[in-house]
């Protein structure tokens, strides 16, 4: 049996045929739906763009229902209701019901702090298949500080318990960085105590909000090595009991990650305002025009034919050193958003790659930041961010 | 609650897919799939047949009997294959089993 993994909240896999997907761009198996950017939490590494969509721009209930029906029709199998905080939308139960009725497998990716026992029960009755709850740490002091939300950690523990009482599978999503990596062994234990099926140990990826907070978040090389050791040990010990997915930060790697499985190959997401995007950070690349589900085009057309999806598809767009690189179809030059953020041109090699002329500089800078004393966060919000008070950091 | 963890599949087990693992025919790609949290598994034809027989009433031995009769194949070999396949699924967390109530 082949196991096509859909890694945490980004790259979603296509069910690969024998001949692979090198020349075909089949409809992805799973699609991420960021139904709102509103969120009571203010995590400094939020994967949403720095320019957040205001609620007035959000798709209506009717528009999202039409999107869900269309996704099921073109062969998408799973949808992830995400955000922002998806439970901030009052119509979530209705949307989950609509998705389930259309035959879609539904995942909820939530901070959990807005959920009540009753609401979670309603979601389960509507056909929800899986709940993923994010945790910022192991105890409320640090966890609530990272989230910028008092009482959040305690509420998350409570909702995790309800999730299992309702017989829903639970994934604990733990976003890791310099200020909480020392809690990883306890986070593994917490996932076990909460009776989770899966644990995602996701090191922060440095674009958008996280890039602004890099100096406060970047781990040391030693911390990362220890993190990898802990994950490997736990995977072995907990085989059959807890599945652990592991996302490493790419700064310290020699080879870049195959971001999103390659641009426009296996993944798309839909933003609160209805833009169809090759990745949830794609709007950070200026000069690209993204089509909306509000346009006259079908989602399948946008996936196959839109300019933005085709711009960095395959290898034709590449410059050196990617162009002649033997790994060009293995990692597709890494992450376009990271290349844009760090070099100003999305068509450049991702500096996470050792072959990038900027790799050395950026690695050294990360190392310096990791050793630095800056722990203050710039919290994520609609106002462009708020700096943490010096006394709290 | 869902079934117990750390299932050890044997001839007497009565396995069944849990609520969060859905066996479904994918009309677009013309293949059977198992939908699970953040994963899509692609079972082969035999696995699909085994899982369709695993309804929580039949035990693994019954399933092997049926397949041995259908394919006129040695029961022991089939039983071993069925157990291995189900154990693999159980280890991934996508199988549960029905147990007699003890109280």
From TrEMBL, chain A:
Belongs to the radical SAM superfamily. PqqE family. Interacts with PqqD. The interaction is necessary for activity of PqqE. Pfam families: Radical_SAM, SPASM. InterPro entries: 4Fe4S-binding_SPASM_dom (IPR023885), Aldolase_TIM (IPR013785), Elp3/MiaA/NifB-like_rSAM (IPR006638), MoaA_NifB_PqqE_Fe-S-bd_CS (IPR000385), PQQ_synth_PqqE_bac (IPR011843), PqqE-like (IPR017200), Radical_SAM_PqqE_MftC-like (IPR050377), rSAM (IPR007197). Its EC number is 1.21.98.4. Catalyzes the cross-linking of a glutamate residue and a tyrosine residue in the PqqA protein as part of the biosynthesis of pyrroloquinoline quinone (PQQ). NCBIfam families: PQQ_syn_pqqE (TIGR02109), rSAM_more_4Fe4S (TIGR04085). Binds 1 [4Fe-4S] cluster. The cluster is coordinated with 3 cysteines and an exchangeable S-adenosyl-L-methionine. [4Fe-4S] cluster binds at residues 39, 43, 46. The lineage of its organism: Bacteria, Pseudomonadati, Pseudomonadota, Alphaproteobacteria, Hyphomicrobiales. Pathway: Cofactor biosynthesis; pyrroloquinoline quinone biosynthesis. It comes from the Bacteria. HAMAP family: PqqE (MF_00660). This is PqqA peptide cyclase. It comes from Bradyrhizobium diversitatis. Residues 25-241 form the Radical SAM core domain.
Automatic annotation (TrEMBL), chain B:
Pathway: Cofactor biosynthesis; pyrroloquinoline quinone biosynthesis. The keyword DNA-binding does not apply. Transmembrane segments: none annotated. Keywords: PQQ biosynthesis. InterPro entries: PQQD (IPR008792), PqqD_bac (IPR022479), PqqD_sf (IPR041881). Pfam families: PqqD. Functions as a PqqA binding protein and presents PqqA to PqqE, in the pyrroloquinoline quinone (PQQ) biosynthetic pathway. Belongs to the PqqD family. Monomer. Interacts with PqqE. This is PqqA binding protein. It comes from Bradyrhizobium diversitatis.
């Amino acid at each position: 049996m082949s196991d096509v993994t859909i890694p945490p909240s980004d790259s979603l896999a296509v069910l690969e045929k024998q001949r692979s997907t090198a020349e075909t761009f089949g409809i992805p198996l799973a699609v991420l739906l960021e139904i709102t950017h509103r969120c009571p939490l203010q995590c400094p590494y939020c994967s949403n763009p720095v320019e957040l969509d205001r609620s007035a721009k959000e798709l209506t209930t009717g528009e999202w229902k039409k999107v869900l029906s269309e996704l099921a029709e073109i062969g998408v199998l799973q949808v992830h209701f995400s955000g922002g905080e998806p439970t901030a939308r009052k119509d979530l139960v209705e949307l989950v019901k609509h998705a389930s009725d259309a035959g879609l497998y539904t995942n909820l990716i939530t901070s959990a702090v807005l959920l009540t026992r009753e609401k979670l029960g309603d979601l389960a009755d509507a056909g929800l298949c899986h709940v993923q709850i994010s945790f910022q740490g192991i105890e409320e002091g640090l966890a609530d500080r990272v989230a910028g939300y008092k009482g959040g950690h305690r509420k998350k523990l409570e909702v995790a318990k309800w999730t299992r009482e309702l017989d829903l599978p639970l994934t604990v999503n733990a976003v890791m960085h310099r200020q909480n990596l020392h809690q990883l062994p306890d986070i593994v234990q917490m996932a076990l105590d909460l009776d989770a099926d899966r644990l995602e140990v996701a090191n922060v990826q440095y674009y958008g909000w996280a890039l602004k907070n890099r100096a406060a978040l970047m781990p040391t090389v030693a911390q990362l090595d220890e993190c990898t050791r802990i994950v490997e040990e736990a995977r072995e010990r907990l085989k059959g009991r807890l599945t652990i997915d592991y996302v490493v930060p790419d700064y310290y790697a020699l080879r870049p990650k195959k971001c999103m499985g390659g641009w426009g190959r296996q993944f798309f997401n839909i933003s609160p305002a209805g833009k169809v995007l090759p990745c949830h950070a794609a709007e950070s690349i200026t000069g690209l025009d993204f089509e909306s589900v509000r346009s006259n085009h079908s989602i399948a057309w946008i996936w196959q034919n839109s300019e933005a999806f085709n711009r960095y598809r395959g290898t034709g767009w590449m410059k050196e050193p990617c162009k002649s690189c033997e790994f060009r179809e293995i990692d597709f030059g890494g992450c376009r958003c990271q290349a844009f953020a760090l070099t100003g041109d999305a068509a450049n090699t991702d500096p996470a790659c050792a072959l990038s002329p900027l790799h050395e500089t950026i690695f050294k800078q990360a190392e310096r930041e990791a050793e630095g004393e800056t722990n203050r966060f710039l919290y994520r919000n609609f106002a462009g961010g708020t700096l943490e008070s010096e006394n709290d950091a | 609650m869902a079934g117990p963890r750390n299932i050890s599949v044997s001839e007497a087990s009565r396995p069944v897919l849990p609520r969060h693992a859905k066996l479904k025919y994918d009309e677009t790609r013309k293949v059977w799939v198992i939908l699970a949290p953040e994963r899509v598994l692609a079972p082969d034809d035999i696995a699909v047949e085994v899982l369709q027989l695993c309804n929580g009433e039949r035990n693994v031995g019954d399933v092997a009997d049926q397949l041995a009769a259908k394919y006129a194949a040695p029961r022991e070999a089939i039983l071993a294959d069925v157990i291995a396949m189900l154990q693999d699924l159980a280890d991934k967390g996508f199988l549960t089993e029905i147990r007699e109530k003890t109280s």
